[in-house]
Structures are given as structure tokens and as C-alpha cells.
Design a protein that fits this description.
With 361 residues, this protein is mainly α. It has one domain. The chain contains 16 helices and four strands. A two-stranded antiparallel sheet has the order 1-2. It has a two-stranded antiparallel sheet with strand order 3-4. A hairpin with a 2-residue loop joins strand 3 and strand 4. The chain starts with a helix and ends in a 5-residue tail after the last helix. This is Selenium metabolism protein, YedE family. Keywords: Membrane, Transmembrane, Transmembrane helix. It holds the Pfam family Sulf_transp.
């Protein structure tokens, strides 16, 4: 009964509601404003903690991300769904991961955070969500014209364990090299002393919540990109009901916790350059569509042994380094000096990928 529940409409609604509620609670416990959970932002912080970029305000080894993969891995093994596979256009997926991250950091959030920002009252998120839908819609046009990255091939069990082991190693690092008060570096890790990277819930609470979300999201196949794709292509509302539940649950929880502050101006980790909020999420949405899943879904698939999803995840982490090292990412002051050019280049690359890669007959 438990195995089948998450495949139902109530199962996906419960998953979305749990994510929305727990994200708001994580914010109350210390995570940044309207960023209780943001896969893109958290992978950016991990990139910074490893020293791949040196933006001092966004460096922290976020345990939620590791928890998503570990929770998905546990669920996959419990329900005999751990299926190692890979080999479906890995370099394309890596590039898509890079540009997905760049687009998300121009907007300042992944699809999850866009919805959580809306649930917290940030009306700039409406523009971002419209861009996300637009990017996914462009992706559906490519799908209808035969776009396909090819089938993954069965792989050895050890291959499916690679990203979960990497994430386990990431999780061990802050335990071995914990933050020293007033110090920006401890051993091999970098830690933010101010800004969003310095704001975080207690490590073990974040990890436990991440594992729980990873477990139920693996069971329900929760995916924000898939929700809009299925609605556009097949008029199916199953996944979309989970997305709606996430927004509603975060809104209600934020109201209860006193975290709902409606408006456009002075929203946490947000800017009001609406054209580029929109365009950044068009790029991100298109990259997610072409890769076959939103960033959260890619982490859950990685826990199931999907090496192609793991490549996308690593592409996003590298993309975060590019975004901050080359001044592409936005800040509350607006888009970075080279962010506009990066979005345009990313759209050109993604359209090229979508238009030229076809399934062989």
C-alpha cells in the first residue's frame, strides 16, 4: 500500500505539500529568505565551498543536496528500483547542466525556488515562472520534431554508485573540517561569513529533511519541469498537482510563521530586472526540458543509478563556478556584468542542441 500510494494523485500532492512546508520551516530554522530549498542555489554554494568559485557570500556545503541523493538511493534499493545506466549523450547533458545553472543564477533560483519565492510573497517570481514555462514550451516543440538524446544503456552496479559516493564524500567534508568561528576556510572547505552562504539550518536537521524529501520524491517521480511538459504535451495534470500543492503549502506555512511579505521590492536574494528574470528562466527551462528533468529530479534520478542525470548534476556545479568566476550571476543589485551575454549564448546553444539532435530511424 505504501509502495503504491506515491504513484497516486494524492501521493504527488502529498510530496509537493511536504516539500513546500519543509522548505518554509528550513527558512525559519536559518536558511536564506525564500530559499528554504533551492537546488540550483545550493549546488552553487557547494561549488563555492569546494573553492570552484570564490564568491565569498555563497560558500557552504549544503547537506540538503546530499540528502536528496541519499534518500533517493535508499528508496530505490528498498523498492528494487536501483537501475544503473548511462551513455545517453553525456557531453550534451553536461553542457545543458552548465547553461541551466547560468540561467537559474541570472534569475536567482531554480524552479523550486521560483515557487517558494511566490509562496513567500515575492512577485518577481511570477516573471520567472512565466519564463520557465516559456522555455519548457520551446522544448516541447523540439520534442514534437523528433528531438531525442538516445537511450541509456545498462551499466555496472558500481557505476550507479558513483554520484551517491561523491555526495557521501561531500557530506563527510564538513564533519571532518567544520567551520571555525570567524574563519573563511577550514581545511579544504570554504565557508561564507556573511550573505546567503552564512545562513543555514542546523546540519543534521537539513540532512534528515533532505533524505526524507529524496525518499518520497523518488517514489512519486516529482518533477517541476515534467509537470509543465506533461500539461502542454498530453494535457495531464498528475505532476502539476504536486507543483500546485508545493506553492499552496509554502504559502500557508509562510503565513503561519510570519514569513509572507508580498511585493516586488526588497525581496530576499532577488532583483527586479524583469526582462532578464524572464529570459534567465527561459534558458533554464529549455535546458531542463532538453535534459529530461528539473534539477531536483536529476538528483533523484542520480540516486537511482542514472549516470546521465549525474553528468547533468556535475554540469550544474561547474556552471555555478563559471557563473561566479566570470560575473554572470545576478545579485540583489541586478544581473551580473556578463550575465546578459551568457543568457543569449546559452539560448543559442540550447536551440542548436534541440534543433540538431534527432532520434535515428
Amino acid at each position: 500500500m505504501f509502495k503504491n500510494f506515491f504513484a497516486t494523485r494524492w501521493g504527488i500532492v502529498a510530496t509537493g505539500a511536504v516539500i513546500g512546508m519543509l522548505a518554509a520551516i528550513l527558512q525559519k530554522l536559518g536558511n536564506p529568505g525564500n530559499m528554504g530549498i533551492c537546488v540550483a542555489c545550493f549546488e552553487r554554494d557547494i561549488s563555492g565551498a569546494l573553492g570552484l568559485h570564490r564568491a565569498g557570500v555563497v560558500q557552504y556545503m549544503r547537506p540538503e543536496v546530499m540528502g536528496f541523493v541519499i534518500g533517493s538511493l535508499i528508496a530505490a534499493y528498498v523498492f528494487k528500483e536501483f537501475r544503473p545506466r548511462g551513455g545517453s549523450a553525456p557531453i550534451v547533458r553536461f553542457v545543458l547542466g552548465i547553461f541551466a545553472m547560468i540561467g537559474a543564477l541570472v534569475f536567482l533560483g531554480c524552479p523550486w525556488r521560483a515557487m517558494l519565492r511566490l509562496g513567500g510573497g515575492d512577485l518577481n517570481a511570477v516573471v520567472g515562472l512565466l519564463g520557465l514555462v516559456g522555455g519548457i514550451w520551446i522544448g516541447t516543440i523540439f520534442f514534437k520534431n523528433g528531438y531525442n538524446l538516445g537511450r541509456s544503456q545498462k551499466a555496472e552496479t558500481s557505476a550507479g554508485w558513483i554520484l551517491p559516493l561523491i555526495m557521501t564524500g561531500f557530506l563527510a567534508l564538513p564533519l571532518i573540517f567544520p567551520q571555525v568561528t570567524g574563519e573563511a576556510k577550514s581545511g579544504v572547505l570554504f565557508y561564507s561569513l556573511k550573505g546567503p552562504g552564512a545562513m543555514h539550518a542546523p546540519l543534521f536537521i537539513s540532512l534528515i529533511i533532505g533524505i526524507g524529501i529524496g525518499f518520497i520524491a523518488q517514489r512519486s517521480r516529482f518533477c517541476t519541469m515534467g509537470a509543465f511538459r506533461d500539461l502542454m504535451l498530453f494535457k495531464q495534470t498528475h505532476l502539476f498537482s504536486g507543483v500546485a500543492a508545493l506553492i499552496v503549502a509554502s504559502f500557508i506555512t509562510n503565513l503561519i510563521l510570519g514569513q509572507f511579505h508580498p511585493g516586488f521590492a526588497k525581496q530576499p536574494v532577488s532583483h527586479t530586472m524583469h526582462i532578464w528574470n524572464f529570459a534567465g528562466m527561459v534558458l533554464a527551462g529549455l535546458a531542463f526540458a532538453l535534459a529530461g528533468g528539473c534539477p531536483g529530479r536529476q538528483l533523484f534520478l542520480s540516486g537511482e543509478g542514472d549516470g546521465d542525470a549525474a553528468i547533468f548534476v556535475m554540469g550544474m556545479i561547474v556552471g555555478a563556478a563559471f557563473a561566479h568566476n566570470f560575473s554572470l550571476a545576478s545579485s540583489p543589485k541586478g544581473v551580473g556584468p556578463h550575465g546578459i551575454a551568457a543568457v543569449i549564448i546559452g539560448l543559442v546553444v540550447c536551440v542548436f542542441i534541440g534543433a540538431t539532435i534527432r532520434k535515428k530511424q
